[in-house]
Specification:
The protein is mainly β. The protein has one helix at about 1-5, and strands at about 10-15, 30, 45-50, 55-60, 70-75, 80-85, 90-95, 100-105, 115-120, 120-125, 130-135, 145-150, 155-165, 165-170, 175-185, 190, 200-205, 210-215, 220-225, 230-235, 240-250, 255-265, 270-280, 285-290, 300-305, 310-315, 320-325, 325-335, 345-350, 355-360.
């Protein structure tokens, strides 16, 4: 009975846990639903929480920061789309005639928002109402697409495909092909994080080979990172360049996190990627991850899991704080919603109902 009750609570670490490595797992304590503590030092406070109708597919926000979009599957063939303003008020809503497994905001800079979504091997462009447009991506997986915002040469959406050979295709809002990179041997994921000084697409192939690709489709760099990395995040700031990789085949039910840093090579202009650390994440499945700048220090890595954990790590892989939610974490992102130069953490949870949480530093 006690175990059953605990599963209905948000669970947070004891004071000793927040500064310990991931391998350390001391006893947990349960707090009442509605508490907004993160770790021992109240790292975040809840700005707002909203429920959406149906099963939550995902949440997203554009660089224009007009608010947060949530997409949920009300019923087969109907997706509900809702925009919440930065203070949590419902500002816009509509539907799309689709069944989706993954959702991203494509462009929110104009009056009519544009979205991208995937279901099995199909990629769609759609808006509020109107007819969805299918884009030609052979053997695409639902995890393998990423939007490119307007300020970085978009709006485009880049999708990964594996059909004999592998590659990337970038599409314009009208569904037409903008460019294609077709010389990859394999690909398992592609991801753009545009918070860095040099936005690039980071692509993994599941065997540890990483490709960094410019937003015009040109390969900037390739290197062998080792392991079986099938998802990667790229980060760059004035202190250097980092790459975070997830190896979901480290064991039959385990995932590991690898951190790489680019050092200067032997020749001028050269650089070498060196492994800075490997961390066993234990018996979890990472379902969402993101980078966020929540204070004056470097960006931090945020991991969300299938059993509701959200963990924030520093660049050394040390646990900063964490919280547990009642359901699978389907979306994580960070945006400066209130323009205070510190980003808010946006969490999408697929639980008993679709839940959207927005947290900010105190």
């Amino acid at each position: 009975m006690t175990a059953l009750l605990l599963s209905f609570f948000l669970v947070f670490p004891s004071a000793s846990r927040a500064q310990q490595p991931l391998e350390a797992r001391p006893l947990l304590k349960a707090l009442a639903i509605g508490e907004t503590l993160w770790g021992h030092d109240d790292y975040f406070q809840l700005r707002f929480k909203r429920d959406v109708e149906g099963r939550l597919i995902g949440v997203d926000a554009g660089a224009a920061v007009r608010g947060v979009w949530a997409a949920s599957q009300k019923r087969p063939g109907e997706v509900a789309l809702t925009r919440f303003s930065p203070d949590g008020k419902q500002a816009q809503a509509g539907t799309a005639a689709l069944t989706l497994g993954k959702f991203r905001l494509w462009d929110d800079s104009g009056k009519a928002p544009l979205f991208a979504g995937a279901d099995d091997f199909r990629l769609w462009q759609f808006g509020l109402g109107g007819r969805p447009v299918e884009m030609d991506v052979p053997e695409m997986r639902a995890e393998d697409f990423t939007p490119v915002p307007k300020e970085h040469g978009g709006p485009l959406v880049v999708a990964a495909y594996q059909y004999g050979t592998a590659g990337l295709r970038a599409f314009k809002p009208d569904g037409k092909l903008a460019w294609e990179l077709a010389d990859l041997e394999r690909i398992t994921s592609v991801r753009l994080d545009f918070a860095g000084l040099r936005p690039v697409l980071a692509a993994a192939d599941g065997t540890g080979k990483i490709s960094l690709v410019g937003l015009q489709g040109r390969v900037l760099e390739r290197f062998q990172a080792g392991g079986n990395l099938d998802r990667v995040l790229y980060d760059q700031d004035s202190e250097g360049q980092w790459l975070y990789g997830l190896d979901s085949r480290a064991g039959s039910w385990k995932e590991s996190l690898k951190i790489f840093r680019a050092d200067r090579g032997r020749s001028p202009g050269e650089r070498e990627w060196r492994e800075a650390g490997t961390h066993d994440l234990g018996n979890i499945t990472v379902t969402a991850w993101a980078l966020g700048r929540f204070d004056d220090g470097p960006r931090k890595l945020v991991l969300g899991t299938s059993n509701g954990w959200v963990m924030i790590l520093d660049r050394a892989g040390r646990l900063v704080t964490e919280a547990r939610f009642r359901g699978k974490i389907v979306s994580l992102l960070s945006r400066d919603l209130d323009r205070d130069r510190k980003e808010e953490l946006i969490v999408g949870v697929e639980g008993f109902s679709g839940n959207l949480f927005v947290f900010g530093r105190k």
